[in-house]
Amino acid sequence: YIKVAFPAYKRIPHSISAFRVELPNGQQVNSYLAQDLATIAEKTLKDEVAKIYAKTIAAAVIKYIAAAQAAKAVEEQTNNALLGLLAKKALNVTMAMFARADTRTWVTLPSNILMSRFFMPVGTHEITVYFLNANLNVVKTQKITVQVVDGQKTFVALESLK
């Protein structure tokens, strides 16, 4: 009995699809898609799927053979076929329990990166960020204080986990 698990990328729907920044002077600046990480993840998986399948199957076969040899060694050392069979079953169950596809890197990635770029004078400013759904309705509002320093670029990073 050999159990294998292959990775699959599943897009997680998000309620926020864009944002709009309102500057202190009333000007509003829309976001744009800087990077679509979900599409990159899907393409990467598609490009690597044959290699992933081959490695996963090879590893499962090697584990199966090792379990069979260990069970045979138990049977031969104890002169007990039942103990050999129990060892084989225990090893197979243990391997099946741990047969999972490695998807750790995809789970931690955002599906996309949105950006907005605008110029502000030197000083401390309060901006308002409106997070928007697919219909461009506001689903969340966040006020942020931004310190703009002469001669430096200022970046503000926000998460929109919703």
Fill in the keyword field for this structure:
3 helices; 4-stranded antiparallel beta sheet; single chain; alpha+beta; two-stranded antiparallel sheet; 22% strand; 162 residues
Q: Helices, strands, pairings?
A:
Layout: E1 18-22, E2 28-30, E3 32-35, H1 37-78, H2 81-97, H3 104-107, E4 113-115, E5 123-132, E6 138-148
Antiparallel strand pairs: 1-2, 1-5, 3-4, 5-6
Helix pairs in contact: 1-2
Structural description of this entry:
This protein has helices at 37-78, 81-97, 104-107, and strands at residues 18-22, 28-30, 32-35, 113-115, 123-132, 138-148. A hairpin with a 5-residue loop joins β1 and β2 (28-30). The chain is built from 3 helices and 6 strands. α1 (37-78) runs antiparallel to α2. The protein is α+β, with helices and mostly antiparallel strands.
